[in-house]
Amino acid sequence: MSDSGSPRVTEFLPDAVHHGVEHGTAVLRLRTTHDRQGVLDGAWWPRSRDVVAELPPLISALTVYLGPLTRVGLDAGAWDALPTRLLVDDRVIHIDSFPVGDDTVLVTRGDQDHFSLLVIPPHATPEAARTAMADAVRADNVTQAEQILIDTGTDRAAPTA
Fold first, then answer.
1. Where are the beta strands (DSSP E) in the chain?
2. Interhelix angle for 126-137 vs 145-152, to 10°?
3. What span, in angstroms and rounded, lies between the C-alpha atoms of 132 and 23?
C-alpha cells in the first residue's frame, strides 16, 4: 500500500501497553513489523468522542513513527463534531468524513499510503481495550475491526448514568 514518495518507517513503537497514560497523550498500539499484510495496522483508544481534543495527540504520536501525515478519515456520526481540518504541530491535517464506522480510523501518509486503526470505544475497560489492541496488531490477524470489538466485549454501549 505504500508509494515510493512516502518516508520509510525508521522506528517501531514499543510493544508495551501497560504504561500509565498522562492526560493529553494518545493510547496507541501499532504493529511492530514492516509487514502490513493484515487487516489493521494498529489500534487507538481515545478517551472521549471529542475529535478536536483526541486527534492531535494521535497525530503527534503517529508522526514520530510514520512521518508527516496528510489526512485522517473518520465517521462523522461517531464523533461529537468533525472539522474539515486541524492544525497539529504546525501542520494542517485534513479531516475526511467516511462511512468507515466508528470502529475504524484511516490515516494517510503521503498521497496514498493508508493506515487503518481499530478505534476502541472510550467507555471500554482497560482489560478489554488491551485485549482488543493486542488482537488488532497480531501478525496473523484477519479479523475485521467490528468483530474484534464484539469478541472482546468492547462493542457494548457505554453505561448510562
1. 28-30, 42-44, 69-74, 85-88, 91-97, 104-109, 113-119
2. 140
3. 21
Taking Cα atoms as reference points, which of 55, 137, 114 lies closest to residue 88? Answer: 55
Give the integer Cα–Cα distance in Å for 108 and 72: 6
Rounded to an integer, what distance in angstroms lies between the CA atom of residue 57 and that of residue 136? 20
Confidence band for 16, pLDDT divided at 50, 70 and 90: very low
Identify residue 89 by its one-letter amino acid code. Answer: D
Query: What is the pTM for the complete model shown?
Result: 0.79
Rounded-to-integer distance, Cα 84 and Cα 36, Å:
28
Here the cell at position 61 is: 504520536
Backbone angles phi, psi at 69, to 5 degrees: -105, 155
> Hunting for cell 497523550 — which residue is that?
25
pLDDT, tens digit (0-9, with 9 covering 90-100), for 57-114 = 999 999 988 889 999 999 888 888 889 999 999 999 999 987 767 789 999 998 778 8
